[in-house]
Design goal:
The complex is a heterodimer of chains A (about 270) and B (about 70). With about 270 residues, chain A is α/β, with parallel strands linked by helices. In chain A, about 40% of the residues lie in helices and about 15% in strands. Chain A has a single domain, classed as Rossmann fold, CATH 3.40.50. Chain A is built from 12 helices and 8 strands. In chain A, strands 2-1-3-4-6-5-8-7 form an 8-stranded mixed sheet, with helices on both faces. In chain A, strand 5, helix 7 and strand 6 form a beta-alpha-beta unit. Chain B is globular. The chains are: A alpha/beta (about 270), B alpha+beta (about 70). Bound molecules: thiamine diphosphate, iron/sulfur cluster (3 copies) and magnesium ion (MG). The site of one iron/sulfur cluster has 14 residues of chain B, from helix 2. The site of one iron/sulfur cluster has 12 residues of chain B, from helix 1.
């Protein structure tokens, strides 16, 4: 219910800065419902973000929030979690934030399997700076820095996260907002590095240039192009070419970083051999 | 009423016009044509009686500008 969601917002900062129809608010709303449903203690909940339109999300939340520097949200979050492992730490990043300038932090957070819940707002573009292409801009799509179409292949965030060692990987779209909420909850429950990719619309920096219409039309595009993991199993690679696979994509087992670190501290103090 | 479960639910739609940016997402996703945009391009509740309390408007509003409160009568 809106009243429950609002209790976690800094209402005095609203209306927020995002453009009409921008999907960032839908992701933020799903995150708040997930935190509410998880029953996290607000005083022990930390939300860390980088820089970008999406990273402004942290400033609207009435938890312990940290709006850091571009690409470095995971570095700050790693420090927080190491110092205070009992805290629930959520990390909000844009696609550029997480996979371009912050790509190294991303793969190493995954490799360490540190218990953070990373939510990547993937709008396929650098929204805040005016629509430059990012490592997530699909081939052929237009950006201010790719006026004739992007010639680069894009990352698959889920495969990247899995390959680098994350132990929970999932994807949903803003159209599938309830699924997104449930996946964030499952990611938060995983004791390790969890990545939830949220496909979200930037009608101004991406949609307009690629003739995808306004926020509503881009939301309906997500509905038409998403297939669940189950549906995808029965489809050929050709059929899947322009599709977005949504749902829980991967779960793995690995030692968690702060647990290992506590053990090292104990060993160094001579408590165990 | 024979069955408590069949009791009608009072669905109250809460709108915060000052936060609405008129994107029309709630209007398009509502399955019951409860909502519309008014002359100023803000959300308006035009058919409150038809609302089934599904919550699609609330979870898809990017601006936290519409919500439903469901109370059992
Ligand atoms: C060190 C540094 N380099 C570059 C920038 C400029 N900059 C700000 S946001 C941004 C990219 C934003 O794209 P993304 O991370 O996808 O977030 P979005 O705005 O799309 O949500 C860039 C390049 C910066 N603020 N700091
Ligand atoms: S530029 Fe794009 S991502 Fe940024 S607020 Fe506007 S629509 Fe959203
Ligand atoms: S709760 Fe459902 S039926 Fe009621 S206004 Fe919202 S979308 Fe329409
Ligand atoms: S979805 Fe929200 S912002 Fe958009 S028209 Fe409806 S109430 Fe207004
Ligand atoms: Mg982006």
């Amino acid at each position: 219910m809106l009243s429950q969601v609002e209790s976690h917002l800094r209402s005095d900062r609203f209306p927020h800065i995002w453009c009409p129809g921008c999907g960032n608010g839908i992701v933020l709303s799903a995150l708040v419902r997930a935190i509410e449903e998880l029953g996290c203690d607000p005083d022990k909940t930390v939300v860390v973000s980088g820089i970008g339109c999406s990273s402004r999300a942290a400033g609207y939340l009435d938890f312990n929030t940290l709006h850091t520097t571009h690409g470095r949200a995971l570095a700050f979050a790693t420090g927080i979690k190491l110092a205070r492992p009992e805290l629930d730490v959520f990390v909000l990043m844009g696609d550029g934030d997480a996979t371009a300038i912050g790509g190294n932090h991303f793969i190493h957070a995954a490799r360490r399997n540190i218990d953070l819940t990373a939510i990547i707002f993937n709008n396929s573009i650098y929204g805040m700076t005016g629509g430059q292409y990012s490592p997530l801009t699909p081939p052929g799509k237009r950006a201010t820095t790719a006026p004739y179409g992007n010639i680069e292949r894009s990352f698959d965030i889920a495969e990247l996260a899995k390959g680098a060692g994350a132990t929970y990987v999932a994807r949903a779209t803003t159209y599938h907002a309830t699924m997104l909420e449930k996946l964030i909850m499952a990611g938060a429950k995983n004791k390790g590095f969890s990545v939830i990719e949220a496909i979200t619309a930037c009608p101004v920096g991406y949609g307009r240039r690629n003739k995808m219409g306004n926020g509503l039309q881009m939301l309906l595009w997500q509905k038409e192009h998403a297939v669940t993991v189950k549906q995808a199993e029965k489809m050929s690679p050709e059929e899947l070419q322009d599709k977005i696979i949504i749902g829980e994509l991967y779960r793995g087992e690995a030692p968690e970083y702060t647990v290992m670190y506590e053990e090292i501290i104990a060993r160094a103090k001579g408590k165990t051999q | 009423m024979a069955n408590a479960l069949a009791a009608p639910k009072a669905v109250h739609i809460v709108v915060r016009e000052g936060w609405c940016k008129g994107c029309g997402i709630c209007v398009a996703l509502c399955p019951k044509e409860v909502l519309s945009l008014n002359g100023s391009g803000k959300v308006a509740v035009v058919n409150p009686d038809r609302c089934v309390g599904c919550g699609r408007c609330e979870i898809h509003c990017p601006d936290f500008a519409i919500g439903i409160e469901v109370k059992k009568q």
